[in-house]
What we know:
The protein is of the alpha/beta class. Among the domains are: 1-128 and 457-518, P-loop containing nucleotide triphosphate hydrolases (Rossmann fold, 3-Layer(aba) Sandwich); 205-315, no CATH class; 519-553, no CATH class. The protein is 57% helix and 18% strand. The chain is built from 19 helices and 15 strands. It has a 6-stranded antiparallel sheet with strand order 2-1-4-5-6-7, with helices on one face. The chain has a 6-stranded mixed sheet with strand order 8-12-13-3-14-15. Strands 9-10-11 form a 3-stranded antiparallel sheet. β9 and β10 form a beta hairpin. α6 packs antiparallel against α13, α8 (205-217) runs antiparallel to α12 and α9 (219-234) runs antiparallel to α11 (261-287). The radius of gyration is 49 Å and the shape is elongated.
Amino acid sequence: MLLELKVNNYALIRDLSFAPGKGLNTITGETGAGKSILLGALGLILGERADSSSLLQPDEKCVVEGSFNIAGYPIQDFFDRNDIDYDIQTVLRREVTVAGKSRAFINDTPVTLQTLRELGDFLVDIHSQRESIALFEKSFQMALLDKFAENEKLLYDYQRHYKLLREQQTALDLLKEKQQRLSLDMEFRQFLFDELNEADLRSGEMTELEQEGQLLENAAEVKSVLQEAVYVLKGNEQAVGDQLGAIMGKLSKLQIGDSFQSLKDRLKEAIIEIKDIASELETLEEKTNEDPQRLIAVQDRMSQLFRILKKHGANDENDLIALREKLKSELSHDISISEEILNLEITIKELEETCQQLADTLHDRREKIKSSIENRINTELAELAMPHARLNIEIVNLGKLLSDGKDGVSFLFASNKGIPFQLLSKSASGGELSRLMLVLKTLLAEKMQLPTIIFDEIDTGVSGEVAHLVGQKMQKLANGLQVIAITHLPQIAAKGQQQYLVYKNESSGSTQTLLRKLKDEERPLEIAKMISGENPSSSALANARELLGIAVR
């Protein structure tokens, strides 16, 4: 429970300490005195956002600190998970600098706002008029239903799979869009690849074809020259090779020492080289023939290659080969996208099946708890002077997976006998809605075991005997936990075991919000002021004492 709240330099609060006790604590004060400011300060240590505009003195930082007794509450795991020292008396602190920067601490360990908010959810539940309005919202109604059904772990599991399902579905949609874009020119790319693949491209082929073409175009002349060369080198009595051989023989007979030996060696090598050249020329001559058909084939092949080169703006066949491989890779990527799409579809189907199973379980648990919730709520409403009021929780299977399952929920309400059920937003008055929220909070407190619950004017729209009954309900709720009620009704204020007064002080030339605990002898006067105004009558004072006599036995 909340042991003490210290507030420094926040809004209209210069320096304030609030130490509520066990049971029911009531906070009263004139409208505009700053009761909501106190809740705003508490909200800071529960993880709400803040900026420098909340500073009373703009050149000083704001500090809000809350001490909580957490003995007996099963939240040790939170401290272990976040590597924070566990202490039965845990301190939450929030600082807002003059620059608007915020720092948060749990037991002097720096933490994020999310971590602070997570712990705050275990410690305090604040009900405000805004939350009563939220009761009209389907999402809020579903959240309440799941809290009653204790679906937190199951819902977390479902939402984890559902989030993954949505992510996979998004990825699948993107892949299909990509595949569609690629498929628009897939046939054309396939055509280009087939053309290049069928061309049977080979590096260096163009050069070879050019040389062969030149040879075929001049075959007769080339053959004649080759024949003449072979004849000169080896084909007659005066052949160059034979003449050199004869000279070599004569030189060998000369006995002129070693001075000619190198010349003889060079001549010998020349004779061998000439014979090799003659043999190759002879072979080439034999192969050189006029072949009109082959010439046509070579020219056609060159024309084909030139056409493809021009079509693709390529310099040579190597560029075409690179383009062919690129197209091949792109076409294989198309295949891999199809495989990826297939794998994603399998994954999505499995996730959908898991989500369907979890959603079915959520539906069953909601249906199972629905009747008991309705009965409890209707019974509690009867105790708050609404004997014929009935709440009906309608659960409809929407047939599709949503963020919290596949159910739609509607809270239908009938305030009097014989009146048909209508949506809560159309059938409940302000006072009826306040009592309904009080009942819901009472029942939820049993489920969630919250240390502290705060009601911010939950008594809106009620008065007289109903206010007395609402106060009794708060007293009953406060038997098991700490309740703090900000109220404008004397019937409820009087039922507090402790009463605190929020007031403004303007004596120093500036306006400040202050708070103090009323002594027992001060309470009749303050409650009498709530009944009849600043100068209460004797009957108002008597009424106040009577109310306090009911609350303080």
